[in-house]
Design brief:
Elements (H helix, E strand, L loop, with lengths): L4 H10 L7 E4 L2 H11 L3 E5 L12 E4 L2 H11 L3 E2 L2 E2 L3 E5 L5 E10 L4 E7 L6 H7 L4 E6 L7 H10 L7 H17 L2 E11 L5 E3 L3 E4 L11 H5 L5 H8 L3 E4 L4 E5 L2 H13 L6 E4 L6 H12 L6 E8 L4 H14 L6 E7 L2 H8 L7 E3 L3 H12 L1
Parallel strand pairs: 14-16, 16-17, 17-18
Antiparallel strand pairs: 1-6, 2-3, 2-6, 4-5, 7-8, 7-10, 8-9, 10-11, 10-12, 13-15
Helix pairs in contact: 2-3, 5-6, 10-11, 11-12
Bound molecules: guanosine-5'-diphosphate and manganese (II) ion.
């Protein structure tokens, strides 16, 4: 779950990380009222689920109410990389002496957390990594051991920040680490982390991604789920309780089990096609679930063929076959369907499907042959 900047700042604030006083709003008058309260100058910032807002005109400094009104008017409704701005965040502006970069994320190959800190902040970290990789100080943290203040201090020293920033940076990074771990985050990033002329260190931006699987541990995370950007297909699938991820190909995929669903995408690619989606209907394959899955896929205008790949385990072949036939009677499907049915009682299942086969409903004996057929039909 990706948080908007203001949600990220509220998340940071609960862990004691210093952020600027501000408020989110959705109209110009409220923006001016917030600015009057927090005090000028203010920064008016677009709240969208994408970076590089500054460059796109989505971050503006206002010295007075008139400028605040002007910027709020321009930023609300602005299109930033396809994201229309509906919410803005107005905060008291900070004086900046230096801009740094700080983050924690997971390094899967090292099986450890990875902290990155750079004296070159305010620009995209990918650019720094490419042009001046030595400017990024990295620290690997063993989750079982945690981050000691001593290790954190050595990391800050290695980043060559202004010595004035050392204490403030150590303090914020220790808190950022706690937020990352206790908050069940996948990513916490502050860019820029600033040193003020007065010597304080402060988070001026917030990029936070939380692990959606951990929401059961955090009651308040429901509010973040509500503002998640989802494409229409994903929204529809989500409402039906389906495990669906939209992709941009033309072969609609339905499989039972996440592993088989991923393999199915691989096989479709392997034979020269491209999947329109990942969809795992789980262990069962009854008519309700199958009808829901077919409906979601059928509503995707890019889909030209549908590949149903089921391996019966606890769910028996005849249940799957009956589920598919019943589902097809409920939903009218535009694209041809290719079925591969294997596993427990596959023969019984195939026998049920056999009399229903036609040029809109086909069956192939193996996963590879079914993938070939589906791809051929899609092209
Ligand atoms: P991003 O472009 O989406 O990453 O948005 P940021 O929140 O990082 O803002 C972009 C840039 O705007 C920062 O790197 C700063 O240079 C500038 N900026 C943001 N807030 C302030 C502020 O309070 N004071 C000043 N002087 N500059 C700011
Ligand atoms: Mn930023």
């Amino acid at each position: 779950m990706d948080l908007l900047e203001f949600q990220g700042k509220q998340f940071f604030a609960t862990y004691g990380i210093p952020v600027s006083d501000g408020e989110a709003c959705t109209d110009v008058d409220t923006a001016v009222a917030v600015a009057d309260r927090v005090g000028y100058p203010v920064v008016v910032k677009a709240q969208v689920h994408t970076g590089g807002r500054g460059k796109a005109g989505g971050v503006k400094l206002a010295e007075n109410a008139e400028e605040c009104r002007e910027h709020a008017t321009n930023i609300l409704g602005l299109d930033i990389k396809g994201h229309i701005v509906q919410t803005i965040w107005v905060e008291n502006a900070s004086d900046i002496a230096e801009e740094y970069y700080a983050s924690f994320t997971l390094d899967r190959s090292a099986k450890q957390y990875l902290g990155m800190l750079s004296a070159e902040g305010g620009v995209e970290i990918e650019t720094v990594a490419e042009e001046n990789p030595d400017a990024i100080a990295k620290i690997h943290v063993d989750p079982a051991v945690g981050l000691s203040e001593e290790a954190c201090r050595a990391w800050v020293d290695a980043a060559n920040l202004n010595p004035q920033a050392t204490e403030g940076a150590v303090d914020i990074l220790m808190k950022l680490y706690t937020a990352y771990v206790e908050g069940d985050a996948d990513l916490v990033e502050i860019n820029p982390l600033i040193l003020k002329p007065t010597g304080e260190v402060h988070a001026l931006d917030a990029k936070v991604s939380l692990d959606a699987n951990a929401t059961f541990r955090h009651e308040d995370y429901a509010q973040y789920d509500a503002t998640q950007p989802r494409d229409e297909r994903e929204q529809a699938a989500h409402e039906k309780g389906l495990q669906y991820v939209g992709l941009d190909g033309s072969v609609g995929v339905i499989a039972n089990g996440a592993g088989l669903a991923m393999s199915t995408l691989d096989v479709v690619n392997q034979v020269g096609g491209s999947p329109a989606n990942f969809l795992d209907i789980g262990g069962g394959a009854n008519a309700d679930v199958m009808a829901g899955a077919l409906e979601v896929i059928n509503n995707d205008p890019n889909v030209k063929s549908i590949f149903i790949n089921i391996f019966g385990g606890i769910t028996r072949g005849e249940e799957v076959a009956n589920g598919i036939i019943e589902a097809m009677q409920r939903v009218s499907i535009d694209s041809p369907i290719v079925i591969r049915l294997d596993g427990t009682n596959a023969d019984e299942g195939r026998a049920i499907l056999e009399p229903n086969l036609n040029d809109k409903l086909m069956m192939e004996p193996t996963m590879l042959e079914a993938a070939r057929k589906a791809v051929e039909l899609a092209s």
